[in-house]
Prior knowledge:
Blueprint: E1 4-7, H1 11-23, E2 27-33, H2 40-44, E3 47-52, H3 63-73, E4 77-79, H4 89-97, E5 101-102, H5 107-113, H6 116-125, E6 133-134, H7 141-151, E7 155-163, E8 166-171, H8 174-192, E9 197-201, E10 207-215, E11 221-233, E12 236-242, H9 249-265, E13 270-278, E14 284-290, H10 297-304, H11 308-316, E15 333-340, E16 342-343, E17 349-350, E18 353-354, E19 357-359, E20 366-370, E21 377-378, E22 385-393, H12 396-408, E23 411-413, H13 419-426, H14 429-433, H15 440-444, H16 456-475, E24 487-493, E25 497-506, E26 509-514, E27 517-522, E28 531-536, E29 539-548, E30 551-556, E31 559-566, H17 568-574, E32 588-590, E33 595-600, E34 607-608, E35 613-619, E36 622-627, E37 632-637, E38 644-645, E39 650-654
Parallel strand pairs: 1-2, 1-4, 2-3, 4-5
Antiparallel strand pairs: 6-9, 7-8, 7-9, 10-11, 10-13, 11-12, 12-15, 13-14, 15-22, 16-17, 18-21, 19-23, 20-22, 24-25, 24-31, 25-26, 26-27, 27-28, 28-29, 29-30, 30-31, 32-39, 33-35, 33-38, 34-37, 35-36, 37-39
Helix pairs in contact: 7-8, 12-13
Amino acid sequence: MFKKILIANRGEIACRVVKTAREMGIKTVAVYSDADDGAMHMKMADEAIHIGPSPAAESYLIIEKIIGACKETGAEAVHPGYGFLSENQAFADALAKENIAFIGPGKKAIASMGDKIESKKLALEAGVNTVPGHMDLIEDAEHAVKISGEIGYPVMIKASAGGGGKGMRVAWNDDEAREGFQSAKNEAISSFGDDRIFIEKFVVDPRHIEIQVLADKHGNCIYLGERECSIQRRHQKVIEEAPSPFLDDALRKAMGEQAVALAKEVDYHSAGTVEFIVGADRSFYFLEMNTRLQVEHPVTELITGVDLVEQMIRVANGEALSLKQEDVTLTGWAVESRLYAEDPYRGFLPSIGRLSRYHAPEGDNVRVDTGVTEGSEITMFYDPMIAKLCTYGPDRATAIDRMSQALDAYEVKGIAHNINFLNAVCNHPRFKEGRLTTGFIAEEYPDGFAGVDLTETAYNNIIALATLVHLRQTTRQIIGMVETAGSRWVASEGLDRQTELSVEDVEHGIDVTIGDHVLAVRSDWLPGDRRIVADINGKLVAGLVEKAGDGIRITHGGGVVDIALRRPRLAELAKFMPVKVAPDMSKYLLCPMPGLIVSVSVGLGDEVKAGQPLAVVEAMKMENILRAEQDGVVSAVNAAAGDTLAVDDVILEFE
């Protein structure tokens, strides 16, 4: 077995590899850039080597620097994680020349499957179902329009070397094909150093289901069930689960066998994933093969008990698989939520900054894969993922319920994040029913995310939690000593929504009566605790607690509610308090995120129409097109291509 391996990556996946290597008794070497100096992955590893400036193109993507770090530390093998150099054939070749093992597949698999165009051709030859499309390269925007018209809209424009949702656009007409081609090309060159583009038919309302394969160098190959990855935004996976609520044993077997056939066709060894799109009629089509470890691999590990990182290391060391297909069993259900540094209330725009507070949930059925701690900084240079939160249960409903509770207990401060959005999705009736497609988010949140409409039960639970918190904060008494017997209160959310209630003091909590409903609230919460867990009528309810003006902010179930508890007379008087009006910012185009201005397409005096593209901002390896919200005339241009702006910096002004 290897004595020392180097991890050519950063963040949560680097930390993940370190954990397994440590359990196997293998020493680890981390690499880090300027931006990652002091990061968790470099602290966890046995050694850490600095490899360059913050931009990935000057550090994590420089093959010579990775090999230099291997030579300096004596690392015998390299685990590439995902992204960066994980599917780079030149990297694997360079390692081979230096007699350094690559913990991944061989040259043939990387070369053929890493290229989406070549992989489609090979899949066809192997008898795997494929989506209709143009597998040759697209020359320019007009060529993209021509090919799109021949295939028939809608079409998917993709970077050949793409992955992680980057370099992908859906076009429904000629204008979108032109625009999508250029944006996909730009993202592809900045993320992968390869701007080749191809086009295929976009299957409407599909599910995205992938098969995990595992193969060794002795001709053995198996599949470890599937993962449902249909909950996506801009082709980036948001919530994954295993198994899929859609597949039956027959379809699982058919997809698994095709995945194995394709893997054998390219002499695959290591862990890999074959992705399919699946129609409502249970037809399925090959999408791509990722010749690496997937971000969402933990859900497969939870339901199979197989450590995929360990298997990758053992295969790279020449060992044969200890598992046969008949040994693979899927037990229970697992769900993964990806926590991103992005603001769902502002169109999911990326957020950067320091984590002033970070506290992850814990428990026997909770797994958190992360590369950050309290005080870590989320920068503009890398993917905005904060962590992966996984929950496990004997069935899907239990796993989802545990996910919602874990999200309620997840505390992140200092940056914007998508925790409330994730919780809203988990509690959405359609999600709970398993009626999923890749269009779920676009269909259920067509105007973006503006918060969740809480059910009456959830809202009353929040009032009950806020009441307990208010009384204990006010009295500063120990549990069971709050003098509340027979007291009447009004729970006010703003000036418009008021709920009358009465409170009775009981041991270890309170009974709250709202209308005809009595909520028995029992909790050990004490003033100063940021998280609250209470038993309300026999069910555990969790949330986060903050001060909000003269009230209390409770975050629960994806909702954020500010509740002020007042006596009835004070609640009446509060209605007369003045309301602060937000300033009108409609005459400005503001930078919605920290980022780099790629282009500004209008000038002083230009007339613009609502919906017209005005500027392109790049942040965290993604291009974002800023459009006019209304008609107007440009009166000032305050930024140009190449400028780095902060949130709310003014790009354009209008008359």
